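Checked the freezer inventory, then went back to the computational side. Two predictions to log before the end of the day. The first one is the construct we discussed on Monday; recording sequence and tokens without edits.
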Amino acid sequence: MKEKRIVITIDGTCGSGKSTIARRLADRLGLVYLDTGAMYRAITWKALQTGQDLNDRRALIELAERTEIRLRRGERGPRVFVDGAEVTEEIRTPRVTNAVKHLADIPEVRSEMVSQQRRIAEAGGILAEGRDTGTVVFPDADYKFYVDAPIEVRLRRRHREFAGKGIEMTEDEVKKDLLARDAADKSRPVGALRVPEGAIVIDTGATDEVEENLKLLLKHIKEVDRVDKLIS
């Protein structure tokens, strides 16, 4: 397979379907899928495992600087490794979710994660998904997308997702959680969620069908000659 050089970013809100779309698009184009959020979860998992004080800024920065995070392709999405050990499932627990802000809001930690993300891209073309991939990590990406959907649509999807995982939450609780996540993501001191300059905004609210929403992105990546040149 030819080495990939194209860079595509997909940012967006929680529950908009961006992660599923990103994985599917990466597979369709034969690109490496870079889940930047998983990297922040991974470093948070290590902080919790090693008993780090989440209020000790210097210790968290040093932890990030000496930790190696790897993403590998798997049949059910990217597999995440911290210092050689797989933590794909462990980083998705509520404990990690509730603690990740302590590291993600530290500029020096984000700087280290961004450096690692850019090093991953050097090995070949990627599709990066997260909150600041088109604004901070790869501002000169070949294609930048911002995926969103109305709050009621995202609420329904999120509630269904939680139910599928056996997590009992009322719709009101899920909505409150979503609105809190939106507010936190958009007000972060670094790496805040916003529409990247020059990004194509995709509204996935009309349908939950992944393929239909995927087509909304693919129609913008239709300059085949340009894509071939970037990939070759």
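The second is the one RB wanted added to the comparison set:
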Amino acid sequence: MATTADFRNGLCIEHNNELYTIVEFQHVKPGKGGAFVRTKLKNLKTGKILQNTFNAGVKINIARVEKRPYQFIYKDDTGYHFMHNETFEQVVIQENIINAPELIKEGQEVEITFHADTETPLICELPPFVELEITYTEPGVKGDTATNTLKPATVETGAVVNVPLFVNTGEKIKVDTRTKEYSERAKK
């Protein structure tokens, strides 16, 4: 058992019989009344953000979670197959716990968070940016670089990302996995 004094960003707690991670917290000591802690909690199953207030000193159950490095192998009817980088153990994960399934490609390194007590996968996170090759986009017009106009481009995973007009088919780009938007051209 821990208390609100042990709160820190990224801590995984049990709240209302569900697992949450602390996204943000703030200790508040008003002039009158007792101190409390304002928090933003992210549900590990649904991904929804919940705002909650805890009285200072309240006992909280901390859930033990482990982040492990995995590599994406392939996808089939049963789900997404991943292999642990050190033990070569394989695990199958459903699409709903992957943060950007449309941007994952074979060989992609990911981090899977497991509930340490039950060994169930909770969330699969891609790195913040992934490099993908553009398989199709309309050709850009020479000299058309002054505006911030975007055009759709299909990347090697099949996802469609809006890119600037000067980006062409065959180029590699960096895509932000949190927003699923174009970031920049990949460095050669």
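For RB: The domain at 129-185 is CATH 2.40.50.140 (OB fold (Dihydrolipoamide Acetyltransferase, E2P)). The mean pLDDT is 88. Let me know if you want it refolded.
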